[in-house]
Amino acid sequence: LYILYFAIFWHLKSASPGQIAGHSAVMMADGRPPTLLEALKRAAIFVFTLLPFGVGGLAIFIGDKQTLWDKFCSSRVVE
After folding, report:
1. pLDDT digit string (tens) for 7-59?
2. Cα separation of 71 and 21, whole Å?
3. Among 4, 21, 31, 38, which is most buried by a count of CB atoms within 10 Å?
4. What pTM value is reported for the model?
5. 76 to each of 1, 18, 25, 46, 60, how far by Cα in Å?
């Protein structure tokens, strides 16, 4: 259910409710909003790497400073 929740928001609004409140959005590397399949892929990676102690988010401190879900999906969060 969490995967569908994030995927639908990222596809329709380009942001989750928290990102909307923070005035940021998810965009693909080429600057367009994610398609439904791209949003589903990003949401699945987000949920499964964030659940085990936030491991996917810790990747922001290594290398090119991107989270795992952004690296694998060629996406980024913009303000």
Report:
1. 999 999 999 898 899 999 999 999 999 999 999 999 998 888 887 767 777 77
2. 24
3. 38
4. 0.79
5. 23, 16, 8, 13, 12
| DSSP one-letter code for 48 | H
Q: Would you state the pLDDT for residue 10?
A: 92
Whether 50 and 44 have beta carbons less than 8 Å apart is answered as no
Apex 72 CA angle, 68 and 77, nearest 5: 65
The closest of 48, 42, 50 to 59, measured between CA atoms, is 50
